[in-house]
Amino acid sequence: MTSKILLDRLVKNYGMLFENSVKNYDMIIKCGDKHLYIGEVTLDELYLLELLDLLSATDEFMLSELMEFTESFLISLAETWMKTNFIKIHLHAHKFTGCKILQEFCIKKICANPDLIFMPKDYSNLNEEVLINLLKRDDLEMEEIKLWKYIIQWGIHKCSSDIDHDSNLNETDVSEWNETNFKELWEVLKNFIDFIRFCNISVEVFEKEVQPLSEMFPRKIYEKILWNYIKPQKFKILKRGHRWETGY
Question: Which segments constitute the BACK domain (predicted)?
Fold first, then answer.
């Protein structure tokens, strides 16, 4: 990307300096000013966190070409951050509507290998929107019961109750919960239920992993879920992205 294009855009948006972060302006200048004389912008000397700051700056100053350039550069370095900073990169990319290239790259990697986002300990930092968008995907390569367990663990972490976040959700643990615990977990997870394909969970596994949490659900919604097994032909063709009308 040429420095002339970069500076032209900065001049055009100069008035934004008085309304927005000086830090972001400095970040733009850092990547551009030292290359004025050779006529191009390079990012080779920036650290990962600086590249993320640069994405923020390009969004703030509406520098779409520089944003795409930065996204492509980050993707070229994917092997250096996929295992250690994937969630951080994924969440940062989703802050900006224009950051489509990096967003799509991360989504494709997650769908092919969901462990990238669910195995790290910091997966509880994911927000509801990101998780629901993943649950809508037909191409997410993970068994439904595993998704259910991860969503439950995420929900428990978000709750402010005294449920032991480090324990597994087995029947013994659930039996110790009170009504408040179940209601609190429902409030955290109620927007996810439409996107869990319960019909793809076997009856035996459902009884072990879902039924112990039945007190969490409003009665009519749990009855809807049970219809998976009474009339499975009605539900088995559901795919992610197809909203199941539960009536809440």
Answer: 95-161
Question: Which of 27, 15, 102, 92 has the alpha carbon at shortest distance from 58?
Answer: 27
Secondary structure, 3-state, the chain:
CCHHHHHHHHHHCHHHHHCCCHHHHHHHHHHHHHHCCCCCCCCCCCCHHHHHHHHHHHHHCCCHHHHHHHHHHHHHCHHHHCCCCHHHHHHHHCCCCCCHHHHHHHHHHHHHCCHHHHCCHHHHHCCHHHHHHHHCCCCCCCCHHHHHHHHHHHHHHHCCCCCCCCCCCCHHHHHCCCHHHHHHHHHHHCCCHHHCCHHHCCHHHHHHHCHHHHHHCCHHHHHHHHHHHHCHHHHCCCCCCCCCCCCC
pTM for this predicted structure = 0.74
Q: Give the integer Cα–Cα distance in Å for 6 and 32.
A: 7
12 and 123 inside one domain: yes
What pLDDT, in 10s, does the model give residues 47-76? 898 889 888 888 887 888 888 989 999 999
Specify whether 119 is located in the same domain as 152: no
